């Protein structure tokens, strides 16, 4: 007991097995008042063409997780951007242990981030991915960066948390004692509403939509 509340301790190994299962999961959200789960599964199969065993598990409030049995399918679909299901856009995020649909907000998105004029001595995969960690969770680099097709900027796909301030500069430290300030450029970011803490629209868009709804309501009342 913990006070007046019964308490129980979960086996650590069982919890770890549950985490391993969820590590191959992506989280999505759709308005199931407009589309049911069955056609979503059909469209997902056609859009994604998964090569491994997969399943969609509804969680409630429009949220669901998509579980893949191999890493290749998960990464390909996660990094594929937004997916169109009917008239809705599906943005998938990686499952994390703190996921809670009661308080969940869509604040993370994948975006290409540029590190311009990066010294060629740092154009190693490990160096570039390490630098990108200062901004978010790096997923990978593009073919041109990987093969050094041009040296204008290193291009990295990063999982960004848009609810946090994104730096325009970062401090890079090298083990030999050298350090330097480097610029960060975000060519295209999805719309993010700081008020709603969710991706998909800007605060001004929301306020404009609210004013329009209020105007329509007053007009109908009159």
TrEMBL record:
Pfam families xref list = DUF4283 (PF14111)
- Domain (DUF4283) spans 21-102
**TM spans (from-to):** none
Question: Which InterPro entries did the record assign?
Answer: At4g02000-like, DUF4283
**The protein, known as:** Zinc ion binding / nucleic acid binding protein
